[in-house]
Write a structure and sequence with these properties.
Helix content: under 10%
Number of strands: 11
Order of helices and strands: EEEEEEEEEEE
Oligomer: single chain
Number of helices: 0
Distance between the termini: 39 Å
Largest sheet: 7 strands, mixed
């Protein structure tokens, strides 16, 4: 298990940028697939991006070309660089992790609010 703490959320105008960070405790971070999810008011939580232990990444279609996920295994951190933000990106963003071989994400942070004004 790892404990996850997000930071970097805030209020930004449409077209602006934010960088979210997630700090993980534990000595096995490097074998975790890490992901970012988000939940907008009145909507279900949705997948945003993920990065595997070896650096392979994936994104939901709506953020491709705008968001970049990265990780630093030496610092036990995963980041989400968000550019050209849109009002529809407004949500609480959650960092999550799962060990190799585990299907479901079973480690979650508390979330950080991102608000994009038009």
């Amino acid at each position: 298990q790892v404990q996850l703490v997000e930071s970097g959320g805030g209020l930004v105008q449409a077209g602006g940028s934010l960088r979210l960070s997630c700090a993980a405790s534990g000595r096995t971070f490097s074998v975790y697939t890490m992901g970012w999810f988000r939940q907008a008011p009145g909507k279900e939580r949705e997948f945003v991006a993920a990065i595997s232990y070896n650096g392979g990444s994936s994104y939901t279609d709506s953020v491709k070309g705008r968001f970049t996920i990265s990780r630093d295994n030496a610092k036990n951190t995963v980041s989400l660089q968000m550019n050209n933000l849109k009002p529809e990106d407004t949500a609480v963003y959650y960092c999550a992790g799962r060990r190799i071989g585990v299907v479901e994400y079973d480690n979650w942070g508390q979330g950080t609010q991102v608000t994009v004004s038009s």
